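== Item description ==
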Amino acid sequence: MSETTAPAQGTPPLVVNIQYVKDLSFEVPGAPLIYSALRAAPRVDINLDVQVRRVQEGQNVFEVTLAIRAEAHEATGNGGSAEPAARVFLAELAYAGIFTLNGVPDNAVEPMLLVECPRVLFPFARNILSDVTRDGGFPPVLLQPIDFVALWQSRRAQAAATAGGAVA
């Protein structure tokens, strides 16, 4: 199953077939009271993951999903309190794209799917997250640029450590 043939003349190695919101959730558990009780901008924790799956076996068409979770809590001024800060909002976004790889060498498929495809999706996902948090009545969550190369390398290092040091 080696796809190392050169792409046809004029065919790009990476084709974006479609991008879409796969799942979007925004929750404000303390509404409406949280809007009058909130005294400072909430502290927002971000978790981002890249997921890839082949759309159909035997084809070089993949769904790449950026899964972003933004959880905001009240900023606490008492520092050492054991009581957790109240959740202000929770935003979860799964933003996906269908990509076709044409003539990409086997050793370049993984970085293409885990680095280049997320780079294409990120600006759109960033904008959606910003809009939904602003439309929810809070300051917009503006994600800083993500180093997808470092994220991919970290994922590979974790996989190698889990596999007992064996490199795939």
The domain at 14-75+85-162 is CATH 3.10.420.10 (Bacterial Protein-export protein SecB). The first helix runs from residue 33 to 37. The mean pLDDT is 89.
